[in-house]
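ERR on first pass: missing label on line 2. Operator R.T. fixed the label and resubmitted. Corrected input:
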Amino acid sequence: MSVSLGEWLNDESPTSRSQARFSSIYHGWIEFKANRLALLGLIILIVLVLVAAFAPLLSPHDPFEQNLANRLAPLGTDGHVFGTDSLGRDILSRLIYGSRITLYIVGLVALIAPVAGLFIGTVAGYIGGWVDIVLMRFTDIFLAFPRLVLALAFVAALGAGIENAVLAIALTAWPPYARIARAETLSIRRSDYISAVKLQGAGALRIITRHIWPLCIASLVVRITLDMAGIILAAAGLGFLGLGARPPSPEWGAMIAEGRRFILDFWWVATIPGIAIFIVSLAFNLLGDGLRDLLDPKSGGAS
Amino acid sequence: MSATQDTLGPHPRSARSSWVTVFYSIIKTLSMILATMLGLLFVTFIIGRIMPIDPVISVVGERASKEVYDAAYASMGLDRPLLVQFFLYISDVARGDFGQSLLNSRPVIDDIKRVFPATLELATLGTIIGVTIGVPLGVIGAVKRDTWIDQLSRIIALVGYSMPIFWLGLVGLLVFYGILGWVGGPGRVGIFYVDVVPVVTGMILVDSALDGQWDVFRDALSHIVLPASILGYYSLAYISRMTRSFMLEQLGSEYITTARVKGLSEYVVITRHAFGNIKVQLITVIALSYASLLEGSVLTEIIFAWPGIGSYITTALLSADMNAVLGGTVVVGLVFVCLNVFSDLLYVFFDPRSR
Amino acid sequence: MIKTFHQAARRSIMKRTLGSVAIAIALGSVVGTATVAQAATPDNMLVIANRIDDITTLDPAQSFEFAGSDVNRNVYGKLVNFDPMNLEAGYEPDLAQSWTVSEDGKSITFTMREGVKFHSGNPVTAEDAEFSLRRAVLLNKTPSFILTQFGFAPENIEQTIVADGNTLTITTDKKYATSFVLNCLTSTIGSIVEKALVMENEKDGDMGNDWLATNSAGSGAYKVVSWKPAESVTLVSNPDFYKGEPAMERVIVQHIQESATQRLLLEKGDIDVARNLNPEDVAGIDGKEGLAVTTELRGRLMYISFNQKHPELSKPKVVEALKYLVDYNGMQNSFLKGQWQVHQNFLPATYLGAIDDTPFSFNVEKAKALLAEAGVENLEFETGVREAQERIEIAQSLQNTFAQAGVTMNITIGTGKQILTRYRARELDMYLGAWGPDYPDPHTNAGTFAFNPDNSDEAQATGLLAYRNAWDPGPLSGMVEAAVAEGDTDARRGMYEEIQREFQATAPFAILFQKTEQTGVNAAVQNLNLGSAVTAISYWPVSK
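pass 2 clean. output:
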């Protein structure tokens, strides 16, 4: 009588809601797996999370330990595989610890910006009228702002530091989410499903949070993944201008900024963190691109 | 995705006097632009005031005595209430006066006339490069979906999207200027050509061509090509991914199948039918990407010593030169909003499917 | 003239364009033949890469930044000035041929040099000199204190700055060392502008301030063609310069932010002088054929200071301990190599009364002992640093060495103006920054590091460094006032030495380094002088 997991997941007529849900996730996964590049992106990101989690075990040195006598050591130096930076700190160890900061930034921005955008967009879309006009003008104002300038202004106002960098980037990142969420809400608002919920006497807040939000999530997730690379690069840009994480924290953008002064003779000091940023943003992009193919109905799905 | 689509899009184009509708939508669009610009100014103004940077120090320097400082404080009108300052500023702007830059005591409008053409030139060339390569790349990716060609175009595009642009700029400069010597160095023209061409548009490529000074033109081209290629590569990524997505949508539709069944050649199906249908959508995407390049890419401008609007606003911001920041933001914001309106108008009036 | 520049560059540009087109089409893929362009700047033109975004105006009555002084020194003559080929000689006659000092020591009468002409062709007169100095006092811009410290004020200039025929007499409110007064007149604010031309361009009673911001009305070796903020300054030579026509007919200073970029331009021969190379790039071009590196001592000091409002940092033992927690030599020999040298007092080397003893060195044990004596444990404070890489690195090195004695230093990075705003408001626990002399006289630094007569918050003496750190120098303030009035040079030197010894032992300032500026130049460039610690760059002696 027992059914294997595969059979259960492939069951054409699911018996429970959860079976149906797992089944659809499973099929999505099969399809996703077929996209090798997206899979590669996912693997890279899993590795990144592991590296960040086990940073103290993986890094050969203390990332803050200075040694002015052994600065700018070349690649492959004994004990310093990726060489040392301007203050004689081990670049590999800094890179490994820096992955934590990268994940921290990405994770926090990915929490703040979409939620803010989702809230504003769905409220505007659902309530409509003046609320819609006001909220959308507000969104347009932030869209029309030069992004890095807005982030810089914010960081300059609050002082440099990683938390402020996160807030600043989130501040520039939310408007597109608000637009997407609003568009989705507009298409859902008049559906029979929402009318039925309304008839049951549900309030606006309840309808928005319980019934509209879940339906917007899919398109937001795709967008978030594609935005991750932009977030990492924006944080690096702030670091590059000296207004990102506080020293001596090994933020990758700040590492490039420090190393760019030696780019002609000691190219690896800036290049290694540059490659790290590149690999991680590429991984997010590959993953996001794959997810879009999968989830975005516009791309036609599997033909 | 675009700023005004929703305000313009849904109004019904009934048979009832379409001229009234057009007039109504023009009024609506204009008031929308005005509201956005006012809001933009207000937010910028507030940012400038809450920043813990003393603008007076920017003007008088760190060694000023108390009297010099107080005199400057009063002459800048900082002793007035915030709202009064804002309304005074707005009324000046309405008369076309952006005030003086605190940092170089020159009219902000003169600075903008100098820096914006530099950005315009760079962004335009960058977008041209991005479109010429990005669109074909996207089309091929869609047509050859899931083949190695598709994967290759995906990688080319995503690599551009993932590269820290300042790093790419430095390395590009080192390789193509430093080692190979194929391109001109940083700056807009070689130093021999500084101040040589009469300023008409402020874009050196255009001005030198107008004046018939082709050696200046060539020199300016050799300087702009690298930063423009780098920005172009960046926008290529977005354009090619969106093109692919639009094409896939078209290729999967029924009328394409019909066209195929009718025996039209694959080439005709793709270029005439599928691509013909995505043109309007594509222009929206290109306009958006153009707008983002016109904001001025601060980092690229720093590395290539390109005196554009991005680094202008940044420098001004970091010195609390708020007249300059406000002026720059107005210009950038206006360009952004106008490009959006433009692409929305395309949607409303030309896209057969937008009702 | 311009056409000849074109000819010179045309060939290399052609080659470059081929390459550019190839790149535009192939976007970096290797297409076409690589031809290394060897451009060279024309023989009569000097091209300089520098950071010039600090220029806010070119009006000599207002200009107060490094890059602005560089321009003004070459555009305007002064009553007395430094000879770039012999800076050690001190100030020498320039537009004033000679001067006499009255018996009470309060009045100096200058006799103007005959036959010197402004760029307009009009002669330089005592009336112009009178106008220029009065104008600087009346405009009352930031650098005006250099003149008003002698008692000149809008109410009394009719009597204190007076032209009579071929002479100009200035009268100070009390007796000062003549060298002090004349040294002040060598600074930018002492520039002589052409009265008629300036007043022709007056707007709303601004005495030409707006016009002079972007134009020039001088008698110097060069005149201003254009200044584009944060972009470039172009100067063209004055063939009638009274010391002879300069060899360089055109000088272009281009704003290039990055050291690596400056070096590439220099190596390619696109510029003659690169002024902001970092130590690694200096090492990179040193010894390359056709290039040279010059090193010149400048007047800037790098220092740290501790706010005396902080309960722990106001303890003398703690301050002393921190002075032993700086790795002076480590920094000097690594990331500051060749660009900053250890210097531990407030008068830059070469200034009257400067002393070069360096009692402090990196000594963790001694610092720990001092901290224990002070009874301070787990000291933690905040340092404000502007977002410049060099300073961020110094801050990190300090953070590292402080930590070795259990002191926690948190670094706050901000923009220059932002950090300065907090520093002036006495809000920073510790400040790390640079200070450059305003005029080549010991009083310029003594009067700010060791002088603060009223330390109360109400005094608002935000221009004084001692005040910014809430430090009351006690008797030192009086000693500084006495030193500036001392007429005898040897006695004056002795007084500054004494002030500095006391300062070094007790002040909450640790002076760390003095600037040595390394410049990368095309080897053909001769006689380029940056002005040492006393003045700015001179273009007129340059040849190549």
